[in-house]
């Protein structure tokens, strides 16, 4: 079964895909400077969602998210699907730190969360895997805490994207102590679907963006809900939803933010627009 990115699941399959190397024609120094700037911007919009662990008497990271406004965080729906319900009082949002320990960051309680009403997890397709989390007290924007700007991406062909979070370093590894982003490339819908051919219709271009980085360069459990950013603009275009495993053999799936803008604005009463 294709697995959501907070739960642990291994799939046995041996398909190989080769990523085409991009031809680099731009001035590498300008590109590198821009890349650093976008990475910093992306870190400022990224938060860690933590749940009280009663055994440890401490909060532990369960998902990544991004800041939409001073009151609202965007993450993956499956982060909050739990048949017994998740008490909001057990959850905090850590912002303004690249460190999992929230060194020099700020911690906020949450007031409520709203999972997309049509969120569904099936072996065939993961739909509408988004959740909006409202904070109890508004975020104080600082140099290290900034809202995301949403955007669109032309992913009919391969284009670079940046995705990440505090997910595991490997399938059975521990969480990254420091926020980590991977350079990925989008993959055309039909190619992504072809690689996931054992799962008919798992990918739908309307809902999903496929991302691929190659062996050892992918996202893992705990990166769920993390932002996918267009490195040429810094705009957030996706939310990390599902993966096959943490090897990097298969493309991973992100929810396409542009498809959900109306829902986001309806729930939050924000008037966000696509850049
Ligand atoms: C944390 O804040 C202190 C005091 O402002 C500063 O000296 C230190 O360098 C900061 N550490 C990090 C990792 O940013
Ligand atoms: C959920 O699905 C129903 C039935 O297809 C549709 O009418 C409704 O608009 C959907 N809700 C959202 C928020 O997309
Ligand atoms: C919402 O944003 C659009 C464009 O950004 C603007 O034209 C419109 O006036 C805004 N509406 C409200 C109610 O603020």
Largest sheet composition? 6 strands, antiparallel, barrel
Bound molecules: 2-acetamido-2-deoxy-beta-D-glucopyranose
Per the CATH scheme, the topology name of the largest domain is: Thrombin, subunit H
Cα-atom radius of gyration: 17 Å
CATH class value of the largest domain: Mainly Beta
Oligomer status? single chain
Signal peptide: 1-21
Protein name: Peptidase S1 domain-containing protein
GO biological process, one term: proteolysis
InterPro entries: Peptidase_S1, Peptidase_S1_PA, Peptidase_S1_PA_chymotrypsin, Peptidase_S1A, Trypsin_dom, TRYPSIN_HIS
Give structural notes.
This protein is mostly beta strands and 275 residues long. It has 2 domains: 45-135, Thrombin, subunit H; 155-259, Beta Barrel (Thrombin, subunit H), CATH 2.40.10.10. Helices cover 12% and strands 30% of the residues. The strands form 3 sheets. It has a 6-stranded antiparallel beta barrel with strand order 10-11-12-15-14-13. Strands 2-3-4-9-6-5 form a 6-stranded antiparallel β-barrel. The chain starts with a strand and ends in a 7-residue tail after the last helix. Residues 7-26 have low confidence and may be disordered. The structure holds 2-acetamido-2-deoxy-beta-D-glucopyranose (3 copies).
Features:
single chain, 275 residues, mainly beta, Thrombin, subunit H, six-stranded antiparallel beta barrel, six-stranded antiparallel barrel, 3 helices, binds 2-acetamido-2-deoxy-beta-D-glucopyranose
């Amino acid at each position: 079964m294709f697995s959501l990115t907070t739960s642990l699941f291994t799939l046995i399959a041996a398909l190989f895909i080769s990523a085409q190397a991009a031809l680099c024609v731009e001035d590498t120094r300008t590109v590198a400077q821009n890349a650093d700037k976008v990475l910093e911007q992306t870190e400022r919009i990224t938060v860690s969602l933590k749940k009280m662990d009663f055994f440890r008497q401490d909060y532990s990271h369960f998902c990544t998210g991004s800041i939409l406004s001073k009151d609202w965080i965007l993450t993956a729906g499956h982060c909050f699907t739990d048949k017994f319900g998740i008490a909001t009082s057990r959850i905090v949002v850590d912002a303004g730190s690249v460190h999992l320990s929230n060194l020099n960051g700020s911690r906020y309680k949450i007031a409520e969360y709203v999972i997309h009403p049509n969120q569904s997890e099936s072996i065939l397709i993961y739909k509408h895997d988004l959740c909006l989390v409202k904070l109890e007290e508004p975020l104080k924007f600082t140099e290290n805490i900034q809202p995301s700007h949403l955007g669109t991406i032309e992913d009919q062909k391969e284009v670079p994207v940046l995705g990440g979070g505090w997910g595991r370093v490997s399938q059975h590894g521990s969480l990254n102590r420091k926020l980590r982003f991977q350079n990925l490339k989008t993959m055309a819908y039909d190619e992504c679907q072809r690689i996931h051919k054992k799962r008919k219709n798992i990918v739908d271009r309307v809902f999903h963006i496929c991302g691929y980085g190659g062996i050892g360069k992918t996202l893992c459990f705990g990166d769920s809900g993390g932002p996918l950013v267009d490195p040429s603009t810094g705009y957030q275009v996706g939310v990390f939803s599902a993966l096959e495993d943490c090897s990097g053999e298969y493309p991973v799936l992100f929810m396409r933010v542009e498809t959900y803008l109306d829902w986001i604005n309806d729930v939050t009463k924000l008037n966000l627009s696509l850049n």
